[in-house]
Amino acid sequence: RIIPNARLSKLTYSGSHISGFEYLHEGQQKFARFDRYFLCTGAFESFRILINSNLTANPSVSFSDHLSKNMFVVKNSTRIGDDDFAFRVKGSSLITKRIVGEIDNVSFYMNPKFNTRFPFFQNLKALLFRKEWSPALIKSIIIDLPAFVKFTWSVLVRKKIFVYRNEWDIDIDIENPSPESRITLSGNPDIFGEKALDLEFVTDKKVVEIYEKIRLIIKEYLDKHNVNYEETDDEIHVTKCEDTYHPYGMLNGIKSIDEFFDLFDNMLVVNTGILPRAGGINTAAAVFPLIEEYFSRLDSMGSNKFTAGQQRLK
Question: In this structure, which long-range contacts are made by residues 77-82, counting pairs with CB atoms below 8 Å and at least 24 apart in sequence?
Fold first, then answer.
């Protein structure tokens, strides 16, 4: 049952047992009670609810996230040695290739980025969505139409991403090793009148040194295969892209999977924030095995069968 335009306020509990939750709906405070709960509202929102419910040991929670830096612009083929880094199209998915490594116990990956300087899409968005119009804008769209046709042909027929002007970027994403970043409840309410979050993101001092070590590794790799490239001096920034923004490290006190499953006897917290680090490319995918393990444990105790029986009776 989906309740739209609602805002979960807090969970109620007795010890490690969740007895229900309070939520706001149509200006009224309401209460709901179920046998089992899944808190999967994203890392920040999930922990806002836990903090607001006094279900964390402290009034704040530490976290970290990826940092990203553009380091090279490659000016020829997407093929480097025996590896082709061009994204392939399979159905509605992109098949990508990355280089993954680790420096000083900090994971990193080489992130190829294509068409960042392809103006056609930016201009089209400006025209259609922001209602911007000028002769120069229309002229630019017309000039880039042949490249757009090539892009469409490459994706639909060749099943391979088109690379504008045969030029692409190499970004390096790393784990931020600092444990100093924190989230706390804010004094500022949201539109529901609930406490929002204050975020403090701290970059570790050794990040610059780590990036320099990675730069030398990638540079050696490019030189070995005679790649035509330029080094960039882009600043280090917190990744805001939807597909890579995955906070982690919010359960620093948890030392084992058993401790994690024993946090609550009838609720599973599911988001990237529960991971101790983000060593892989797709952090969210690392949570899926935990969900499978959780249901396997329920099944071994017969809880799944009990729930299924209830549903059949209804």
Answer: 77/166, 78/112, 78/114, 78/163, 78/168, 80/221, 80/222, 80/225, 80/227, 81/224, 81/225
Pair of tokens at residue 283? 């952090």
The helix (H) or strand (E) run that includes residue 288 is: helix 288-301
CA dist., res. 86 & res. 240, Å (int): 23
DSSP 160: B
Q: What is the mean pLDDT of residues 131-158?
A: 86
CB hemisphere CA count around 206 (13 angstroms): 11
pLDDT in tens, 1-10: 899 988 999 9
Per-residue pLDDT, 52: 93
The answer to whether residues 179 and 62 touch, using CB atoms and an 8 Å cutoff, is: yes
What is the residue-wise DSSP string for 39-73? E-S-HHHHHHHHHHTT-SSSSEEE-B-EEEEEEEE
Report the number of secondary-structure helices (H) and strands (E) in the chain.
8, 18
| pTM (whole model) above 0.70 | yes
Contact present, 25 and 180 (Cβ < 8 Å): no
3-state secondary structure of 257: helix
Beta strands 66-74 and 229-231 are antiparallel
Which DSSP string corresponds to 75-141? -S-SEETTEE-SPEEETTEEE---EEEEETTEEEEEEEEE-TT-HHHHHHHHHHTS----HHHHHHH
314 CB-contact burial (10 Å; exposed 0-12 / middle 13-18 / buried 19+): exposed
46 within 8 A of 273, measured Cβ to Cβ: yes
Query: What is the rounded end-to-end Cα distance, in angstroms, of the chain?
Result: 14
Q: Interior CA angle at 170 toward 164 and 172, to 5°?
A: 150
* Residue found by looking up tokens 């892009």 in the block: 151
**Exposure class string for 221-239: b at 16+ Cβ within 10 A, else e:** bbeeeebebeeeeeeeeeb
Give the whole-angstrom CA distance, residue 167 versus residue 70. 14
Query: What is the spatial distance between Cα 71 and Cα 75, in angstroms, rounded to a whole number?
Result: 13
